[in-house]
Every structure is written in structure tokens, then in C-alpha cells.
Amino acid sequence: MPQKTTETVKVMCDSALQQINLFKPGEQGSLPRTFTFDVIYGEDSHQQQVYDECGFSLVESVLEGYNGTMFAYGQTGCGKTHTMMGPASSLDDKALNQDERGIIPRTVRHIFGFIDASEKEKKFLVRCSYLEIYNEQILDLLGKNNAVNLQIKEDPNKGIYVKDLTTVIVKSVPELEKILFAGMKNRKVGETAMNKDSSRSHSIFTIYIETAESVNDGTGKQKIKAGKLNLVDLAGSERQSKTHATGARLDEAKNINLSLSALGNVIKALVDGVSTHVPYRDSKLTRLLQDSLGGNTKTVMIAALSPADYNYDETLSTLHYANRAKQIKNKPKINEDPKDALLKEYEQEIKQLRALLAQMQTQGATGQQMNQAIMAMQNNMKNQLNQGFKVEESVDDLIKRLEGQGKRIKILDENENDQDDEEEQVKPKKGKKKQQVQKEQTEDDDEENQDQVGEQEQSQNQVKMQQKLKELEDLEKEKQNLNADKERIQNELQLKEEKLRIEAREKENLEAMIREMEYKLVNGGQALEEKEKEQSQAYREYQKKLKAQRKKQKQLLEEKRKKEEEMLGVERQYLDLQDEVNDQRIVIEKLKQKYQNALNEIQDFQQEQQGDREELLDTIRQQSLDLKFYKRLVKMLMKDEEIAKIKLKSQYDDNQNDWIVPPFILRGKEVTLPSMKQNGYKVMEQEKDNRDMSIEGDDSDDDLLNDRRMGVSSGLFGQQSKGGQYKQQYQNEYNDRPNQRGRIQINAPQKMNQQTQNVPIQMRWSQIDSSINLNLNQASNEYNSGSQSHLMMTPEPSMLTKNSKANALLAPLDKPVIINSNALIQGNNGASGGQKYTIPSIDQLQQLKLQPLNHMPRKKQL
Ligand SMILES: Nc1ncnc2c1ncn2[C@@H]1O[C@H](COP(=O)(O)OP(=O)(O)OP(=O)(O)O)[C@@H](O)[C@H]1O
């Protein structure tokens, strides 16, 4: 969706013909490149229109049980996030610009609107998950730890899925929106020269909808359908020259461009008609979208364009991308009665719980039996959920967790207070008891006083008194017996009460579980007034009509195009010659136009390929420099045997696309490998903290740091002593690879003066005799004598020994050897020692029509 711009508009949208015309800047009067798509939106179109025409029918399909994917593709800053999400300010419930909301918030409303308008008997289970792919890592935007790189798995029933991805059950628009906004806040966004809030990751918000409805065959059976909707906001392709990205932004851009070019390769392979292999595994993005591209999913691609002439190349590339994607044929199918449907599991659980409750009420099952049954059921459910997804937590819990832990601490404090309160309440009770005991004591004392008075009276009648005493003793005994009986009865009563309490609690638990299970499912026909239902139905009908109209319009356009095609070949009966001439002229004009279009297409394609190649080579070159730096660093820190030992214990993980390196510690002369289970990585980090690093000399100097970033070249020519050391190391490393073939690139300066700009020229190694000798002394001498010319090689500087064999031969094919030297090109005739070889001059190289490569980083003058 083009955004308004003050620059010259070079994109014309023809919505009626569903065509987009792109004019090349500087080519006045030339024919535009024309592309036809299902729908075209100019800068005056509205978000509602985009949703009605692109989103609505896809969401309806998902509600019918299809899988759907909608993704926005395009150059950075073109409006992908705007189209998918809309401006952040529009998402608020009270926002005045709610009509600017994008596809995702509209989808959320559509889904629950549909549920509310469906029959009451229908049951729905709605869940969602939210992930981002950042620097080729899959991060859970709703997860407890969103720095963990999750793994992609494949299962015959579930298809491709992300292991341990958090999914949350939602029952209403506000709940789903809360989750969405909380996840959005975790997304990686950064400022670039082209977009203040540029998405630095690809994000996938997935909504899973399961529907259960009774089959009308009198068996009471239910039909379950499960649809899944992926709403994808891709990060935009970007050129470093425009975004001026450096550091982390540049790393992100490299990863973004690589994954987008992997997506492009998948699309190409799917439509070129010759590829037998589709490279889905080349990136996490293509792997996750595998079902959406050529699989069983209904997919809508939205191409966002910039209309500015400044972005002509990127706009053309996006249009080609979309044009190819348009040709992909998917085979969508409804997911009926899927084995892993959660709704089915929940329904079964509810049934079983109800049966248990009934049993408890009629047969009086014991609390212990109940407990065991509930525990078994809960475990069973957890296992089922764990097979694919993490066990869901409630929306409120999740939001609380995402907002931080503060609330929980507060709740704990409150509980503590509650406890204190309870104790406070207990205290007065204890006091009362004490008072009562004191009272009883006083009463006893009174009795004693009275006895004393009686004693005086009874002194005259001792027998009587003794009898009385005996009676008292008997009474005391009886009292003791009664107390013992009372205690026993009390204990029995307590036990009975406890038992009753347990049973009541179990029953309550059971009922709560049933309530909770039922709560997770949403019944159709809720909350809506009859009038709202009618409106919703009318809107749906209108959408259907609109869809039918669009289909008809498309058919008519197609017929018109076909007729025009036919006209070009039809022989007509002409009444006079002039008519025939006129018609033929029109036919010729049209054929000319077609021919020109085809030529343009070929030219665009070649340019695009060249652009892609340059971008990729640039990335390879950058990565090769990084790799060299890390290699150098590791070699400075560790011995070859140590590296070998650790490599032996390491494994390459295809799923993670990364090395799993076990923890290790460098201590004195030994390498210790602490077990991963025993917190090995933590131990390793502590060891690292204990080490102090010191660098000899004034190595903090910026220049030196820069030179180091460039890799080994900094050490090669600047100081002979260092150079010698490096040479020796590299020679050792590569001399034992005699049979690997490689290629050589010569980056030749266009003009032979010191301010030259490099025009790199590629020459395949196969054009050079594999046993040549190169005399490179001249290059290094020239360098050392202070000339601007220099020689830089990656990654095999062993070539630089005097009269050395061209060890570039030994370079593996994926690591190009780069020679950048004036001297090499000029003083090239004399190979020494045996065979002769002449490196071609620039003219000769150019005559070979070898394609120029990208600009190479120039090395600093030392
Ligand atoms: N159709 C539009 N109408 C109004 N504003 C728009 C439109 N499209 C884009 N914008 C604005 O342009 C800016 C960049 O858009 P957005 O962030 O959506 O680009 P993007 O393609 O997602 O970029 P990136 O790939 O860098 O994430 C935003 O401020 C956005 O609001």
C-alpha cells in the first residue's frame, strides 16, 4: 500500500483494470512496466477496504476449517506494519482513529463477531500464539523467557510447528487484543534512516480456531474442524546505502535480507517449472511458511510499494516478487476431525468429569478415589498438551506475567497479612478461654470455702462427712470416665467432619474443573441482541455479494484480455483495403508493445538477478571478514589441539542451524569439559570473569582496532614481523588441502592512480592453470614502499610467501580468494620458477565480459 510522498510519483494504480504501471525515472515517454494483480490499492484506499477485499474471505475460510496465511512484503518503510496492524494510536478502545486499524485487529473482531452470530449449539475453542524471527532465532513473544531460541519440529499430524511455543486460550475480543498488544511490546523495533519504527524481525501472530458442531444423523456425534490463521508482518528488505545501518542494525539487516532472499528463492523454485527441490530449509521464515507456500494453506500476499522514483529499483523488485508469488498454486483443504484437536479432548474431559461427579453423588466414592481420578485426568491432559505446545495459562495470568512480577509479590504480602489477621482473631479466643478457666477456678474456690464451712458443721458428724467424701471421689471418677468418653466422641466427630469436608472439597474441585473446562469453550450465539445478529448477518451477505462481484469482474477482464489476444491472430474479412490496413496497424502496434514488454521483463529479470547477486556477495564478503576475525581471535586464545578436542565433542544441529558446543574451561595447560547438566555454561562464564585480558602496547588505538576488524590483512604488510608470523600459520593451515578447487577474484582498480575506485572483476579459477606460480613480491614491495596499491587476500595469505605456489587453489569454493592489487595487474608477466602464467590486464578481463562484483572495502593505509 503506497504511502504518500513528496517525491515524484512513479507508480500509477489502475484499480479498474487491476493493473499497476511503473515508470522508470529519467525515461520520459517510455512505456511503463505493467503488472496485473487480484486487487490494487492506490494511496486513497482505506484500511476497511483492504480488509473487506483481502482479509474477510480468508478469515471466513479459516472459520470453516482451512489454514490461512496473510503476509505483507515490501521494502522497509513502505507500510507493511501499517497495513497489518495500523498505527499504534488507533488500537486503543477510545481512539478516534479506529478506522485506521489494520488487518490484525479487524481479524480479531471478525472472529468473535462470527462466533457470536453462529448457532448456540456450535462450540468454539480459540487460541493464539505470537513469535518473531530475529537474527534467524525463533523467539516467543508471549513466553516466560523471550530470549530462548525455539526449535522447529515436524509431525505427520500437526505438520510444521514450533516446540514449546506458548499458546493461550482466549474467549473474547478484549482478551485476544490484550495478548496481541502485550506481545507487540516485546517485538524488536529500531530506528533506521528510512523508518523511525522499523521492524527488525519477522513476526507471526497465529490464531487457532476449533469448531465443534453436531452431525445431524441422530447419532449425537460431533464434527470438529480446526483452522489456523498466520498473520505475518515481515521485516522490510533494505539497502545499506539507504538505511545507513551499522553495528547491530547492519547485522539485523543482513539477516533480514538473507531470509527474504531465501523466501524469494522458494517462490522462484515453486513457479519456475524446472526446480525439483524447493529450498524451504534455507531459513527459519521459509520453513515456518512451508505450508503457506505451495502447501495446503490459503495464502494472501500483500505487496507494499513506495511510489517514489528514488525507490524505483526496490519497487520493481517487489512487483516481480509478487508477480511470481501470484503463480504459486496451493492445495487448500479443510482440516476435519484432526487427531490433535484440543476441543475434542476438552469435551471428553468434561464428559468424564461429569460421570465422576454423578458416581460420587450416587455411589459415594471416597475422596481419595476422586483425588486419584482427577490427578490421572490432569496428567493425561498435560501430556496431550505437552506433545505440541506448552500448557496454556489463563489470559490474566499471562498478562500479569508479561507486565512483571510486582503484583505477585504484593499478593503474597496480602496473604501474609491475612495470616496475621487470622492469628489476631485467634488471640482473643485464647484470652476468653483463659478467663473462663479463671472463672471456673474462682467457682471451685468458692465451693472449697463452702466445704470448709460444711466441715465445721460436719465435725460433729464425721461418718457423714466420710460418706460425702467417698461420694465425691466416685463422682470424680465418673467425671473422668465421662471426659474420656467425651474426648473419644469428639475425636470421632472430628474425623467424620474432616471426611465430610474432604468429600465436599473434592466435589467442589470437580465442579470447578467442569466449569473451567466449559469456560474455555465459547458457545455460539452469545452476547448479541437479535438486531446485532441481523446486522452481522447482513454484513456477511454483503461481503459474499462483493466477493461474487469481484469474481465476475475478474472473469470479464480475463475474457477481455483473451479476446484481445485472439484478435491478434484472427483473419478477418475486410470490405476495403483501408480497413484492413488500419486493423493490421493496430495488430502490429499491439505486437510491438508485447514484444517490448517481454524485452523489458527479461532486462528487469537480469538486473534483479544481478542486484541479488551483488547483495549476496556483499554479505558473503562481510561475513567472511567477520569469520576471519573470529578465527584469528580463537587461534590467539586457543591451541589447534584444544580447538580439535572441543570440535570432537561438538555437534551441528540442523534444526537450530547452529553448532552445539559443550561448555569448556581453559585452565593452565588443560581444557576441562564440565558437564552441561551441572551448569557447565555457568561455570564457564565464571572462569571467564576470573581471567584478566591484557594487550601489549598501545593496542587500544582505533586504527589498529579497525585494521583488526578487516582481518588478517592488517598484519600482512604493515609489519614484516607480524606478517611472517601470520603467513606461517596460514600456510600450515592450508597446505594440507591439496585437492580442493577454488576460484579467484581479481578486484582491479579502474584507473591506475591512487584515488581509484575499485571495479572488481570476477574470474573463475577454472580459467587459470591450476599449477601456476605467482610472483607477488612486486605487490608486497610496492605496498611496503608506501604505494596506495595493496594486496589483500581472503582467506589464504600463505600465497604471499616469496615465489609461493598459488595456494588460492586450495581455497574451498565457498570462500572466494580476493586479490586487490594494482601491482598484480600491472607487473604480471613474470611468473617465476618454472611455468609461465600471465594474469590478464583489465582490458583483457573486461573483454572476457566478466561481470563486475560489488565494491570491496579498501584497506587503510598503514
Ligand atoms: N497507507 C499509509 N497511510 C498513512 N501512513 C502510512 C501508510 N503506510 C505507511 N505509513 C506510515 O509510514 C511509516 C512507515 O510504515 P511502516 O512502519 O508500516 O513500514 P514497514 O513497511 O512496516 O517498515 P519496516 O519494514 O521498516 O518495518 C509509519 O509511520 C506509517 O504509519
From TrEMBL:
This is Kinesin-like protein. Residues 718-728 have a biased composition (Low complexity). Belongs to the TRAFAC class myosin-kinesin ATPase superfamily. Kinesin family. GO terms for cellular component: microtubule. Residues 685-694 have a biased composition (Basic and acidic residues). Residues 410-465, 685-728 are annotated as: Disordered. The gene is Contig15094.g16085. It comes from Stylonychia lemnae (Ciliate). Keywords: ATP-binding, Microtubule, Motor protein, Nucleotide-binding. One of its GO terms (molecular function) is microtubule motor activity. InterPro entries: Kinesin-like_fam, Kinesin_motor_CS, Kinesin_motor_dom, Kinesin_motor_dom_sf, P-loop_NTPase. ATP binds at residues 74-81. Gene3D superfamilies: Kinesin motor domain. Residues 1-328 form the Kinesin motor domain. The keyword Transcription does not apply. Residues 414-424, 695-704 have a biased composition (Acidic residues). One of its GO terms (biological process) is microtubule-based movement.
